[in-house]
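User: Okay, second chain of the day. Same drill as before: sequence in, C-alpha cells out.
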Amino acid sequence: MPVHPAVPADVPTLIEAYRQTVSSFADVGEGLRPQEWELPTTCPGWSTRDHLAHVVHIESYLAGMEHPGGDASVPSPAPAAPAVTVGDPPHVRNDFGVWNEEGVLARRDRDPAGLLAELRTLMEVRSAAMYTPELTLETPVRSVMGLDGPFGPVTQHRLIDIWAHEQDLRDAVGRPGSLDSPGASTYVQAILDALPRLVVRRVRPEPGTVVILESTGPVNGRGGVRVGLDAEGALVGHELFTGHTGADDVRPSVDDDSHDRTTTIALSTSALARRAAGRVSTAETAYNVTGDEDLARQVLEALVLTP
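Assistant: Same drill. C-alpha cells below.
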C-alpha cells in the first residue's frame, strides 16, 4: 500500500526531496545552542556533533572527496585525507561501521558552524550534478565504500539516512518535527517493504499467520505479510496490500482460518521510525496490538533495519 504523503519516485521529485531533506537537517543543526552539540543521543557512541560529522562525511564522499580511511583504489579529485584509527568501540560492529566511524572521527573536532556551512555547499554541488539531462533512476552514481549504485535507490537511501539523523538531533534536544516530510515517507515505505522478509527470516511464525503493520501518522501507510509454505516446505511470505498482482507472485499455501490468525500492530510514524532505526527498545515503544501480543513483540524486536 502506498504511503501518504507519497514517496518521491522520479528524478525531479528525488532531487527536490534531497534538497529539502538536507536543508531540514541543516536548519535543525543551526538551531542548536553551542552546549547542545555535545549532548549524547540514542545512537550508541555518538553525540549530536557526531551525527553532523557523519552526514557531512557521506555527502562529501558522494561528491567525490576522499575517505579519511584511504580508499586508495577509488579515484578522487581531492588529496587523500589523513588516516584515522577507530580502535574497537562497542558500537562499531562491522566494516561499514568502521568506515562510518572513520568519517566521524576525522571531523569530530571541527566547529559545527563550519560543518553546517560545508553541508550546504555540498548540497549545491551534489544537486548541480543531479540536474544533468541524461540522469535516470538507473544511472550509476557513486555510493559508499567505493561502490556504485543506481541513482534512484542511492538517493532514496540518502533521504532515509539524513532524515533519521535529523530525528536523532531532534530527540536529543526535545524538538520534534519533520514527521510528514519526504524523508519520513521514504523511511516508512522502506520499513513496510522490508516487513515480509523480516517476519519470515527473523520471526518465523507458523504458516497461516498474517501480520499487518500500520503507520498511523503523520505518514500514513500499511504493510502486511501472509506466511505460508512453498513447494519444498520452506516458509515464504506473501506481501499484502501491494495493489497489483503478477504471474510471478508467490502464492503460499495457508490455512482457511488465517483470518483468525491476523495480528495488527499500529504505531505512530515517529515510534515506527525510531524502532526501525534501533534507537529505542520494543519495551520503550508505544504501539497498539490487535491479535497476538507476543507475536507483535517479536515482530517489533525483528524490525530493526540499521546495519
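The chain is about 40% helix and 10% strand.

User: Thanks, on to the next one.
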